[in-house]
C-alpha cells in the first residue's frame, strides 16, 4: 500500500472508528486521553465500560461524538433481566449506543429463543438508542451459525451486527464479515456492520471497506451503517491522514 493509498483509507476510516478502551485496568485518566484522541480524530464514537459513561459524556458534550458501552460483556451470559437492567442504567448515565453480547452459547446448544429473547428485551429497553449485537463470530466459527445469529439479531431489532468482543481467540475475519453483510442485505431493513477485533494494519481496514463497497455498494458506508473497532490503529491512521 502506497502512502497516498494509506492516507485515503485513513481519511475514510477515522470517521467510522469506535475508539475503545475496555482494558481490565482502565482508569479515569485513560478515559480523558481517549476523549482527547476522539476529538482529534473526529471519530464516530467512544466505547467504554459502563462506569465511565458519565465521564465520557461530559468530556465529549457538544462534539457529536457518541458514547457507546458494553452489556453482557464479554461472556455473553443468559441473564436477560440483568442485561436489560444494565442497559437502562447505561442509558440513564448518558450512553447513546449499546453493544450487547449475544448469548451465543445458547445458540450453539440449539436454544435460539434465549438469544432472540435477550436481543428483543434489550431492543425494547434501548428505545431510540442504537443497539449493536456482538455475535462473537470466532466462537460461532461455522458460517451457517454466523448467518443464523445474524438473522436472529436483525429480526429482533439490532441496528448493527458486530463481529466480536475482541476478547476471544479469534476475532473478526473477512469471511465472517461477508456472511453478516449478506444477511444485512437479505433482511431488507436498514442495519449496519461493526468490524471489531483483529484489525492490525491500515491494509486490514482497507480490506473490510472494500468488502462493504463490493457487497453493499460504494455509497453505503457511513458512520450510520459501518463502524470499525480498531483502536490499536488510531495512531497509524492519524499519521497516514496527516502525511
TrEMBL record:
Q: Name one GO cellular component term.
A: cytoplasm
Return the Gene3D superfamilies for the record. Aldolase class I (3.20.20.70)
- Reaction catalyzed: 2-deoxy-D-ribose 5-phosphate = D-glyceraldehyde 3-phosphate + acetaldehyde
Task: List GO molecular-function terms, semicolon-separated.
Answer: deoxyribose-phosphate aldolase activity
Family annotation (InterPro entries): Aldolase_TIM (IPR013785), DeoC (IPR011343), DeoC/FbaB/LacD_aldolase (IPR002915)
Under which pathway is this protein filed? Answer: Carbohydrate degradation; 2-deoxy-D-ribose 1-phosphate degradation; D-glyceraldehyde 3-phosphate and acetaldehyde from 2-deoxy-alpha-D-ribose 1-phosphate: step 2/2
Lineage: superkingdom: Bacteria
Keywords from the named record: Lyase, Schiff base
- Give the enzyme class: lyase
Q: Which GO terms describe its biological process?
A: carbohydrate catabolic process; deoxyribonucleotide catabolic process
Give the matching SMART domains.
Answer: DeoC
Q: What is its EC number?
A: 4.1.2.4
Coiled-coil residue spans: none
Under PANTHER family, the record lists: DEOXYRIBOSE-PHOSPHATE ALDOLASE
Which family, according to UniProt? Belongs to the DeoC/FbaB aldolase family. DeoC type 2 subfamily.
Name this polypeptide is given = Deoxyribose-phosphate aldolase
